[in-house]
Design brief:
- With 420 residues, the chain is of the alpha+beta class.
- The protein has four domains: 171 residues, MoaB/Mog-like domain (Molybdenum Cofactor Biosythetic Enzyme, Chain A, 3-Layer(aba) Sandwich), CATH 3.40.980.10; 49 residues, Molybdopterin biosynthesis moea protein, domain 2; 90 residues, Molybdopterin biosynthesis moeA protein, domain 3 (Beta Complex), CATH 2.170.190; 76 residues, Beta-clip.
- The protein is 17% helix and 27% strand.
- The chain has seven helices and 27 strands.
- It has a six-stranded mixed sheet.
- A hairpin with a 7-residue loop joins strand 23 and strand 24.
- Helix 1 packs across helix 6.
- The longest helix has 19 residues.
- It starts with 6 loop residues before the first helix and ends in a 6-residue tail after the last strand.
- It binds ligand LQZAQKY5 and molybdate ion.
- Ligand LQZAQKY5 binds next to helix 3 and helix 6.
Length: 420
């Protein structure tokens, strides 16, 4: 019998057949959560022009020689004004926050340091400056945040709200992003009934498709749950044949991949060149993958085991990196825990299966996030779906360990953080 594959080796096999999807140009407002497809440099400087950081009076610093001091008010400039006014010697120009600094002025005196009231007030003829300010005080220079051509956002990073605001500020209204994979989810198993249906003998609710759809939808993916009319090989084969034609980039099946006499996924796809492996992990041991060929495209199919916690662990271990790779996230960021990696200890000891890397659903201690506890005393049991809502992390126990000792640090994948 073949030795089980290491988790990393199985993931590398998967990544080696994962295509990078084409890029597309989207209106900036629709690009949230997409992976940026090119490096962006500033088209506009930030700030785009030298402007005031305060409501007050623009002055020439050289005029501020003694206090109190009276200057002639030569005009006013509000935010959105052109800034053509000139501030001559002995003059001040009333100015609002964000308004362009008038020619000649180099310093802004906040209204609070003058004899003028804050807020709506008629433009005075004179202003008395009561206190000194530093040279160039309250002036935001053109380009002091970024100059034209300066780096703003790199390819391969997810476009967050802050990224979009930065890119809008430097002149972009459309962005080139990677296409987002469309995902099909298929539960298999004759014992499954839809959520809420009564259970006949030997039946269980289909929770896997609910879980996968939810994980994907919560991250903004387009996902469809597909069903077969029965778990016969013919019906299943027919469903798979339609998946790539229907434009899905990824298909995820659950169940039917171990050693059972009715393991339909394995039976049907093994004839289509799919690879099946035992991976040295618990839960999530039996895994398979292959390509479904459609009329004009291929669809990468991941066949996950049927147990619900195995699905959850397999999703975070294999599906998330695949989705990232398809969208141009650099592979080294997908094969390490990266920013989601923490280190934590358990308050009690427990057994771990030797030879398999154990992924234990855990929650973080409220007071000290370097302590985790198992979400159920049965730990990483692959059927423990009812305690999954408590899982904030997956503790990762090395395959060499037979026992986890209390107080000994282990890596933890923090599920509360975004995937990439
Ligand atoms: N003789 C062996 N038996 C098993 C092995 C093995 O190596 N030799 N591996 C075990 C491991 S580990 C796992 S994991 C499971 C994987 O089994 P399958 O992928 O074939 O999945 P099924 O048999 O269809 O189902 C397993 C389990 O999960 C429940 N299930 C399935 N689908 C759903 C769903 N959509 N929603 C909720 N629950 C689901 C199903 O009722 C079973 O209880 O095989 C072991 N056996
Ligand atoms: O690998 Mo199975 O997922 O241990 O239960």
């Amino acid at each position: 019998m073949m030795a089980p594959l290491k988790v990393e080796d199985y993931l590398s096999e998967l990544l080696s057949v994962t295509p990078v999807l084409p890029t597309q140009v989207l209106p900036l407002a629709e690009a949230l959560g997409r992976v940026c497809a090119r490096d962006y440099q500033a088209r506009f400087p930030v700030p785009p022009f030298t402007n005031s950081a305060m409501d007050g009076f623009a002055v020439r610093f050289e005029d501020l020689t003694s206090f109190p001091l009276t200057l002639q008010v030569a005009g006013e400039v509000a935010a959105g004004a052109s800034g053509d006014l000139e501030c001559g010697p002995g003059q001040a120009i009333r100015i609002m926050t964000g308004a362009p600094l008038p020619k000649g002025a180099d310093t802004v005196v906040p209204v609070e340091l003058t004899d003028q009231p804050a807020g709506a007030a008629p433009l005075p003829q004179q202003v008395v400056i009561n206190e000194p300010v530093k040279p160039q005080a309250n002036v935001r220079r053109q380009g002091e945040n970024v100059q034209v051509g300066g780096p703003v956002f790199p390819a391969g990073q997810v476009l967050s709200a802050t990224a979009l605001s930065a890119l809008a500020s430097v002149g972009f209204g459309e962005l080139e992003v990677f296409a987002r994979p469309r995902v099909a989810v298929i539960s298999t198993g004759d014992e499954l009934v839809a959520a809420g249906e009564p259970l006949g003998p030997g039946q269980i609710p289909d929770s896997n498709s609910v879980l996968l759809r939810g994980l994907l939808q919560a991250a903004g993916y387009e996902v469809e749950v597909l069903r077969t009319s029965s778990d016969t090989p013919d019906d299943f084969a027919q469903l798979l044949a339609s998946v790539a034609d229907d434009g899905f980039d990824v298909a995820i099946t659950t169940g039917g991949v171990s050693a059972g006499a009715y393991d339909v996924v394995k039976a049907v796809t093994a004839q289509q060149g799919f690879s099946f492996h035992k991976v040295a992990m618990q839960p999530g041991k039996p895994q398979g993958f292959g390509q479904l060929s459609g009329r004009d495209r291929k669809c990468l199919m991941l066949a996950l085991p049927g147990n619900p916690v195995s699905v959850f662990v397999s999703f975070h271990t294999f599906v998330v990196p695949i989705l990232g790779a398809m969208q141009g996230i650099p592979v080294e960021r997908l094969t390490s825990l990266g920013a989601r990696g923490r280190s934590a200890t358990f308050p009690e000891s427990f057994k771990s299966p030797a030879g398999r890397r154990q992924f234990v659903p855990v929650r973080f201690d409220n007071a000290d996030a370097s302590v985790v506890e198992r979400t159920h005393t049965l730990g990483s049991g692959s059927h423990l779906v009812a305690s999954l809502p408590l899982a904030e992390g997956l503790a990762i126990i090395p395959e060499e360990w037979k026992q986890v000792e209390a107080g000994v640090s282990v890596p933890v994948l923090d599920l509360r953080l975004p995937w990439f």
